[in-house]
Amino acid sequence: MPRRRSLRKVVAPPAFKGFKPYGISSESTDSVDLLYEEYEAIKLADYDLMNHQEASKLMGVSRPTFARIYESARRKIAMALVQTKEIKAVYGNAWLDENWFICAHCNARFSFPANTTEHKCPICKSQEIDPLKK
User: With 0-12 CB in 10 A as exposed, 13-18 as middle and 19+ as buried, what is 113?
Assistant: First the structure.
């Protein structure tokens, strides 16, 4: 029986729910699920320009595990681009660094600073907010 997977630390969830290719028919239902930890690996390695050792420490995984997560993310993005599939962000096997919320009105994802007592969406000022869960 394989060992239970440990949760991977994600500093912030992706700011998108998904991406759709432009210029194809809307009847295509194929999509690729990009896990939060895969998004985090791409962000750390390619956007923040961290090496794998630094990024793996930040995510709380070993360097080889980080490399596998990163490789999986790159393959999924390449498949979506070549086969014109939609990319969807899904929770996966991650835990968020802070308590994050989602606005029921505008779907913004955010966390509250420690000194804030007012719990409203910072984008649309709606009070209809829910904790971001799996």
Answer: exposed
Decide if pLDDT at 69 tops 80: yes
Burial class (CB in 10 A: 0-12, 13-18, 19+), 55: buried
Same domain for 83 and 37: yes
80 and 105 part of one domain:
no
What does the alpha-carbon distance between residue 70 and residue 38 come to, in Å, rounded to a whole number? 6
Residue 49 sits in the same domain as residue 91: yes
Report pLDDT digits (tens) over 91-129: 887 777 667 777 888 777 677 766 677 778 777 888 888
How many domains, the chain?
2
Which pLDDT score is estimated for 23?
Answer: 81
Long-range contacts from 71-76, C-beta under 8 angstroms, 24+ separation: 72/38, 73/34, 73/35, 73/38, 73/39, 73/41, 73/42, 74/42, 76/32, 76/33, 76/34, 76/38
| Domain of residue 134, residue span | 97-134
What is residue 33's three-state secondary structure? strand
| pTM score, whole prediction | 0.69
